[in-house]
Write a structure and sequence with these properties.
Order of helices and strands of chain A: HEEEEHEEEHEEEEEHE
CATH superfamily of chain A: Glutaconate Coenzyme A-transferase
Largest sheet of chain B: 8 strands, mixed
Strand order of the largest sheet of chain A: 4-3-2-1-5-8-10-11-12-13
Helix content of chain B: 10-25%
Helix content of chain A: 10-25%
Shape of chain A: globular
CATH class of chain A: Alpha Beta
Number of domains of chain B: 1
Radius of gyration of chain A: 18 Å
CATH superfamily of chain B: Glutaconate Coenzyme A-transferase
Structural class of chain A: alpha/beta
CATH topology of chain B: Glutaconate Coenzyme A-transferase
Distance between the termini of chain B: 29 Å
Shape of chain B: globular
Largest sheet of chain A: 10 strands, mixed
Number of strands of chain B: 11
Distance between the termini of chain A: 26 Å
Oligomer: heterotetramer
Chain lengths: 231, 218, 231, 218
């Protein structure tokens, strides 16, 4: 499995039957492939509908997901305008929002919409999603392509929100943010030391976290190439 | 009151320096014929309000590429490299607004509201220069209304009274913009007689629509 | 003609073809009967639709006007929820609002929703209508049943709005409010003196106002019984 | 997730002291079966949020007559003499809210907004105790959100997922209340299988509906 697949699979386990879920573009869109049998979720698409499903048949130019890709709508879906879409998002009617991140920190702050002077795509719906969703999950690779840490003591890029992130899922570990960063779970074969070496932020280790002390970081690949990949 | 006009008649309505709202999400649900007429018309120094700047060849993206826009208010510009280039070159002012806030600000403009209080953007660059209010121990930004001189929107079908229904995810910002401009021009794929749209399924009531243009087949 | 009919007929002349109009309950509902040929208006009903029309056929319990009376909907009408209804009202999409009044004054203030200690029906949609409609017309009998003036220097009852009334139509006269009260038109046979005797507020007389100096106040009846009917 | 429950099961959900929103305009579009169950259930000291207090024998009016309500938030009480009587006798607190403001306050409660700015009520008793803001030389009131523990609403038809369509002027406040309560119970005339309502015509998406009750024929 690629790191992305590991992440998507683990995020899928965060979702409960009946959850209304908004998935960011990119990695999060893989998540539905990994849902356990018996877990049916309803996908909300910020551009204006519920019941987002895979494309079946011919692409309809008027039916796209939030990334602009052709998609389908499942039975029981509903279309609405952007005000209603964000009333649902901001109003707490979306149970889970899964987004990517450039940086996330131990106070639950998130940065994912701009790199000053370099790239300013804009926040789109991200600021509303993190503000309104009941459970905000950051799904991202643990480090940047250059091996720099993305889980920081304090975000350095312009923020998307302050203190709204609840959970971070990477290919190495799962963190909860609860008065600081708590390491809750390690991927198979990953040790606490492995995670510390790739994480700038200090974190406590949760009681149920099983340390794979003797691990060799060969399972997931993406970070094995960046030992001690700190910023 | 015949609201139906030709694309030729539309052309004369756009003036330099106007504020234009344009429906669509990444170009889906944008009035392509009206955008083309706006480009043909030659109006420049426009302020454009739109969810995003679409793509260079699609939706409002074409206005950016043709350098008609001096100010863009949008939530996302990542899909149109020309927008970022003009912004960095200081040829284009871009005001980024969270998408839900953009929707509410346009809705306020159409609904006669002076603004809304939203938590979205608190603690970020978005709060710069804005009034903050604390209510029930939560800090909110006061976000102000947006209106335009002309809104150009896209619908699937209109009756001659201007009642509109939209198509799938092409609905997006169109129904909000339909209330928020001094003149609202809709481009539709299909025009039917008044009374042919079930009053229960009308999304935008005809009274807010000034002009209807039937899309040309490409 | 009764005073109510005179008023409804005169208000009807204020309406232009294509106007979107909201009519208050009671007297204003008579207005459509007096529209000139060629003047088609669209009626907005605050409880959630456009295209209000007369009841035809059997009453539908789900289709009532803002007073709760069964009614019809004309071709080209549309149903919506209360937020949309008042978005239209507050947002300036209703051209004309016609309401009754308990009191109205020369600053364009209106009182029509409560008499403290006596009757408190509530404002319903009236405060939004007077705030949002482009042209606010008060349609009312010139004096109370007891002969007291209703057009005052300053309203004494709790206000519905401040400075939002544009036009007052009574069975005696038409006033515009434009930096004070301006008498614009007299009903046939009504003199300026007649109006002064029934109006507490001072008013100026507009240039086009024709004084029926020699009038005897027999045409309209309702105020002839109350000579000098000042408060 | 079966959202469909019987009127018997509804009964246990109402508790003393709860805040209840109830759809309807002069009783049109009120969930009569749910109101009856609420009365049968015996809950008292309720705060009720509704456009009006309908009539003594109809809609929320019955809750007033049965003395279950200690506080009523509404725009109009003129059609139910008992409401005025209890108010004057100090048995019932009545907070009168302009109808458009009431709609927006409920919408805010459902949409995660901290409030709206409206000119409605400026210079009147409505402004008492409220924050005022001046924007663009216009004075606005800051009106705060309303939410409820339970919203009871009426629709024409639901599918099993809770997607709703309404009937004519019985729509009114129902779609707004559907987003603004911790639990939303809808009474419908007709229940159909999921997928039988065209996604384009859904007014209230099913995800906000907790329970569906099919109205009994009278």
């Amino acid at each position: 499995m690629t790191p992305k697949e590991i992440i998507a699979r683990r995020v899928a386990r965060e979702l409960k039957n009946g959850d209304v879920v908004n998935l960011g573009i990119g990695l999060p869109t893989l998540i539905p492939n990994y849902l356990e049998p018996g877990v049916d979720i309803v996908l909300q698409s910020e551009n204006g509908f519920l019941g987002l499903g895979p494309l079946f048949g011919e692409a309809d130019p008027c039916l796209v997901n939030a990334g602009g890709q052709p998609c389908g709508i499942l039975p029981g879906g509903a279309f609405f305008d952007s005000a209603m879409s964000f009333a649902l998002i901001r109003g707490g009617h979306v149970d889970v929002s899964v987004l990517g991140a450039l940086q996330v920190d131990s106070q639950g702050n998130l940065a994912n919409w701009m790199v000053p002077g370099k790239k300013v795509p804009g926040m789109g719906g991200a600021m509303d999603l993190v503000t309104g969703a009941r459970h905000v999950i950051i799904a991202m690779e643990h480090c940047t392509k250059d091996g720099a840490a993305k889980i920081l003591t304090q975000c350095t890029l312009p923020l998307t929100c302050v203190g709204k992130v609840h959970t971070i899922v990477t290919e190495m570990a799962v963190f909860r943010i609860n008065n600081g960063l708590v390491l809750e779970e390690l991927s198979p074969g990953v040790s606490i030391a492995d995670v510390r070496s790739c994480t700038e932020a200090a974190f406590t280790v949760g009681p149920d976290c099983i340390d794979h002390v003797d691990s060799i970081t060969e399972h997931t690949g993406s970070f094995s190439a960046t030992p001690g990949g700190k910023r | 009151m015949n609201k139906c006009i030709s694309l030729q008649e539309v052309k004369g309505l756009f003036k330099d320096g106007m504020t234009i709202m344009c429906g669509g999400f990444l170009g889906v649900g944008s009035p392509e014929g009206l955008v083309r007429e706006l480009i043909n018309n030659g109006a420049k120094n426009l302020t454009v309000i739109s969810n995003d700047s679409a793509f260079p060849e699609m939706g409002v993206g074409q206005l950016i590429v043709n350098k008609r826009v001096v100010k863009l208010i949008a939530s996302h510009i990542g899909t149109n490299p020309e927008t970022g280039r003009q912004m960095i070159a200081n040829e284009l002012e871009v005001i980024l607004v969270p998408q839900g806030t953009l929707a509410e600000r346009i809705r306020c403009g159409g609904a006669g509201l002076g603004g809304v209080l939203t938590e979205t953007g608190i603690g970020t660059l978005v709060e710069e220069g804005k009034i903050k209010l604390v209510s029930n121990s939560v800090k909110y930004l006061v976000e102000l209304p947006l209106r335009a001189d002309i809104a150009i929107i896209k619908a699937k079908k209109a009756d001659r009274a201007g009642n509109l229904v939209y198509e799938k995810s092409a609905r997006n910002f169109n129904p909000l913009m339909a209330l928020a401009a001094d003149r609202v021009i809709v481009e539709v794929d299909e025009l039917v007689d008044t009374g042919e749209i079930d009053p229960e399924t009308v999304v935008t009531p005809g009274v807010v629509i000034d002009n209807i243009v039937v899309a040309e087949r490409y």
